Amino acid sequence: MSVLTRRAVAEFAGTAFLVMAVVGSGVMASRLSPNDVGLQLLQNSVATGAALVALILALQPVSASFNPVVTLVERALGILDTPTALALVAAQFAGGLAGTVLANLMFGLDAVTLSTHQRAGGGLWLGEVVATIGLLLVIFGTIRSGRSERVAFAVGGFITAAYWFTSSTSFANPAVTAARTITDTFAGIAPASAPAFILAQLLGGAAGFLLIRALYPRVPAPLAASAPLPAPAPGPESDRKVLS
């Protein structure tokens, strides 16, 4: 199996499990705590954050972005070439959709049901911009400061918190957003609401990229963080990325 194929498979599997965690825990929370939305959100956020930590730790040696915005920023920073970035983004979207279908089926629901959960408004869109900027800052700030072994915990912690401090509950991921349109459950988002969320995430990605360049101007572009190599030795190459 080629290096690119391994990376794509890792992104597909990781994004699928991430979405299963988001959607599946949302369904379980709504069934266990049907009359307490706050408790449902707590259960959903904790499950998602924990899954992110585990998935990043497991797939970090191969590829662990699970997020097209992160992959596009890696391309902009020169970490990935264009063909690799496109392949990984395609795998992320495909994995996300597969994860939603599996989550629906696990809980006895139709494989695909379009969400009726409308999520629209300036406050929610701003929440997505903020969540995406914060996610990128946490990921690349941790990695580019030579602490890549801690990125899984940083990302999991940030996403768990961002569920609560952003108005949108921090989707911050175009692949996950698209995947959540095909489940009419707690975690769903109506197809008509998804484009604005994705646009906000892309705007956040552009702003996050500029912030990273401003804060870490002297860090040389590393090799692709998702390369299937052993843990890097201390030095510039420890800037290798692994995340969500």
Structure in words:
The protein is mostly helical. The protein is 63% helix and 0% strand. It contains eight helices and no strands. The protein has helices at 3-32, 37-59, 68-76, 82-106, 122-144, 151-165, 174-179, 194-215. Helix 5 runs parallel beside helix 8 (194-215). The protein is globular, with a radius of gyration of 17 Å.
Q: Outline of this structure?
A:
The chain is mostly helical and 244 residues long. Helices cover 63% and strands 0% of the residues.
- Would you report the number of β strands? 0
Percentage of helical residues? 55-70%
Q: Total number of helical segments? A: 8
Morphology call: globular
What is the average per-residue confidence, as pLDDT, rounded to a whole number? 91
Task: Summarize the helices and strands and which ones pair or pack.
Elements (H helix, E strand, L loop, with lengths): L2 H30 L4 H23 L8 H9 L5 H25 L15 H23 L6 H15 L8 H6 L14 H22 L29
Helix pairs in contact: 1-2, 1-4, 2-6, 3-4, 3-8, 5-6, 5-8
Keywords for this entry:
0% strand; disordered C terminus; 244 residues; mainly alpha
